[in-house]
Amino acid sequence: MAIRHFDVAVLGGGAAGCPVAWFLARAGLRVCVVEPGVAGGGGASSMTGGIVRAYDPDPALMQLSLRGVSLFAEWERHGLPGPSPLKRTGFHYLVAPENIEAAAAGAQWLEEKGYPVMRRLPASCLQELPFLRPDHPAPLALHEPMGGHGNARLTCQQLVRSLVDMGGTVLENAGSDIRLERAPHGWNIVLPHGTLRASIAVVAAGQATRDYLPQLPVFVRSIPLVRMQGATVTPLVDECNQTYFVPAGDGTFFCGSKCNTDLPHAAPVTDLPAVSRAMVEDARMRAAGVLHAGISPQPLGAIAGYDLYSANLRPQIGFAAEGLFTLAAFSGRGFKYCLAAGEAAANLVCEALGRTAPYAHACSLDAVAPQSCQPELEHA
């Protein structure tokens, strides 16, 4: 039987793989998504809601994030499928004293791009943040009215359903025994019970990217998240207390702990520690530093999350070898720019196939290009 051929095979159906697959299919390419489980159901994409914001201390990520907010906030205008997964609640970034000049410069850059950012004292934000302690030590708060939080799983599911409607293929529950083999003019994707061929393979497999691209300078880091009850919050990042809040329903929210663990390169994610009392107490302490004295947050469960990281917290997006593209290392904060990354990556893949880049407003990816590396051709 002849091997079925695609223009592009995307390995991974999470917040990295689904957007690039959708933008490629929208551009008219024959696309197949290969997902070990179900789209949006594994790794960081399955854990919690993601914060959607434009400001980032890294100017390269701020450009991607600004485009990402535009795509989320104007979902229908950009032709994205289904209802927007963004809950536009506004977002606040509480700046530490040592970062005030850089934050002000970043806010000014966003304002010059036409994106609204309000620079305020935290005490003047209490109307939008009634849960915030009035004596919060941050000297500056950035308020993004267009920001909010979104559902990563819903985003992935809507994109793959639309991809199928456009004639694409989604192979869910493909299992973990997936191998890449070089083939004439492309790559074979060898599954337990069959083989596909693609002119270009896109590796967007989260932590499993390490198995395909062992020389990529990335590592797995745990992201402990503790669900708290006792306050209804809006999304925020707090540099002073080194934490963040993601709403999780009326009276509950997720709070980030700093009890992170980094894995050696080849170690499996099963080596990450389970949720511990220390993680929960660390998150409770950090939440108490954000909330006013009348709120006593109580833990209501925890998640031992994880993601693939790079040392400079920038994603690795681009061609890692001939015909082999990677979207990886979103470093626990990639949901805000996942659509922008997918759009821009689709342009590069189309150009590599001899086609015109279809998305005129996509970002440049020069600042997040991966180092060239020899792929591992077998992934067990």
UniProtKB/TrEMBL annotation:
GO molecular function: oxidoreductase activity
Domain FAD dependent oxidoreductase: 7-348
Alphabetical list of PROSITE patterns matching this protein: PROKAR_LIPOPROTEIN
Keywords for this protein: Oxidoreductase
GO cellular component terms attached to this protein's record: cytoplasm
Family annotation (InterPro entries): FAD-dep_OxRdtase (IPR006076), FAD/NAD-bd_sf (IPR036188)
PANTHER family hit by this protein: FAD-DEPENDENT OXIDOREDUCTASE DOMAIN-CONTAINING PROTEIN 1, SARCOSINE DEHYDROGENASE-RELATED
Protein name: FAD dependent oxidoreductase domain-containing protein
